[in-house]
Predict the structure of Transmembrane protein.
Amino acid sequence: MACQIGTHYAAATPGMGGLGLALVLAPVLAATLGAALRAPRRTVWLALWIAVCAALWAAREPLARHFEWGAWLEHASFNLAMAFMFGRTLVEGHTPLCTQFATMMQGPLPPAVARYTRTITLAWTLFFIAMASVSTLLFATVSPLTWSTFANYLTLPLAGAMFVVEYACRRIVLPHEPQAGLLASLRAYREASEARGARGHAMPERAQ
């Protein structure tokens, strides 16, 4: 949240483009540095990372004057990535993501619950596409300050409202089914992912 507040402050305050650019680039550079350190050819990727940092530093002044472009790209690409994460599981032969969450919490699902979780997966896909579309439309048609208000101050409340609406719909559509909360679902997903990772590490040991 601090990054969002800082980015909005930079958009609203003349001469603060350098701060805005730093806030836009810092998460990306930190994530790519972590990926480079974990990569098999770590030396090559670290050298590339340093070269990119040097290029960004050399171009810092023009980039700072237009840092809003980077902020928009970050916001839109995040929402599109989330839409892809949900949407790809709707393809035939895949299990919808919300169905996966529900199965981890409840085990095998009745047909009605499976249909509902598929619908909710579609709803989240459309939500993230709508967020990216509105962000792009606002960025292209209104002032950077107005766009920043939407991107930095309304994104989380809108996602929270989506959770509330989904919970209310679930209580109406599936009144007799267990109502697992978001945190419990995410905890189950994390535990299942960790269990799969542990099994993956254990298999080479048994092979030895």
In short: The CA atoms of residues 17 and 64 lie 5 Å apart. The chain has two domains: 1-65, 68-208.
